[in-house]
Amino acid sequence: MPPPIPIIILNWNGLEDTRECLASLEEQSYSNYRVYLIDNGSEEAEVAELKRHYSDNPRIVLRFNDQNLGFTRGNNQVLREILTEHPELPQVVLLNNDTTLDRQWLATLIRTAGDHPGQMVTSKMINYFDRERMDNAGHQLLNTLEVLPIGNEDSVQDHTTVRENVGPCAGAALYPTEMLREIGTFDEHFTNGYEDVELGLRGIVCGYRSVYAPEAVVYHKVSRSVNKIRDFEYTLNIQKHIYYIIAKLIPAGAFWVCFPFLLFRTLAGLAVNTLFFRKKYLRIQLQALRWVFMDGRHLLRSTRRQFFAQHRVISSLEMIRKMDFFLKKDLQRFYKYLIRGEKMVFEKYD
């Protein structure tokens, strides 16, 4: 029998979500797994409940952090332990605690990993509260160099075929340990948000692939964790992270081919949102651009130099072939946010 596949789950003051997640995990058709349940500095009463419910479970390894290390550091401490102490393990799975699982989820992830060795595997993440609607099917890269979730709010029937993407959402993903040993774990420049985008795209740039498994179904309580921490600084950091990823990972040739589209998208976004008086959006964008050209300039340069000095990467042509043209997506966003008046992610802060 192969060694049990490790599944890392973080908890931060989310006991009821965690219990529901673990209950659905216990119902999996594939039972050869070990859960690393990491509490990220929850309140004392919640820690006591976790110990009471799970300390005697042979499939669960409990860990308790004295403070909230965030998603990135909380996962990294366990990932590094697994990579160092368990060289026999071919894959590791990350799972959000605000999810529940189809009974075949884990079996499908593992089967897909076997069919596509050395690749990342993306779950089909469905909105927990509206199960006819997608959360995401992994990430796509536009030729404006934005990385966006695939299929958000689409019908679940629109995403039923296996296909490649540029990385999974780490809320329910399988990563090959071979890849993590070569390219590293999450970049600790990030704390909560976009770390999975960067890791997935880093894998792609370094020659790995990511495949979407439509039968690996997960129901996600969308933004349950993010809503606990969403404020101006969190939202500003999302846009900073977008620029950080571009600066760090995109090969030079691909960047300059895409630069006119990036410039057009940025200027058009500022102009249109000025006309529509979207002040929150403009505040985020202008402060992020100030960071790129002033406060963050040296960080972006040094991070890029270090990455390309340490890694062999795919060609710019290969990178461009993995991109989708931006116009259709931006027209959809124009209608959704500016015509219908829905809030963008950059406007949801208080």
Poorly predicted segments: none
According to DSSP, the number of beta strands is: 13
Structural class: alpha/beta
In the CATH hierarchy, the architecture of the largest domain is Alpha-Beta Complex
- Supply the number of helical segments: 12
Domain Glycosyltransferase 2-like: 7-148
InterPro entries: Glyco_trans_2-like (IPR001173), Nucleotide-diphossugar_trans (IPR029044)
Keywords: Glycosyltransferase, Membrane, Transferase, Transmembrane, Transmembrane helix
GO molecular function, one term: glycosyltransferase activity
Overview of this structure, please?
With 350 residues, the chain is an alpha/beta fold. The protein folds into 2 domains: 5-228, Spore Coat Polysaccharide Biosynthesis Protein SpsA, Chain A (Alpha-Beta Complex); 232-347, no CATH class. 46% of the residues lie in helices and 19% in strands. It contains 12 helices and 13 strands. The strands form 2 sheets. Strands 1, 2, 3, 4, 5, 6, 7, 10, 11 and 12 form a 10-stranded mixed sheet that branches. A 3-stranded mixed sheet has the order 9-8-13. Strand 2, helix 2 and strand 3 form a beta-alpha-beta unit. Helix 7 crosses helix 9, helix 7 (232-249) packs across helix 10 and helix 9 (279-295) packs across helix 10 (297-310). The longest helix has 24 residues, at 252-275. The protein is globular, with a radius of gyration of 20 Å.
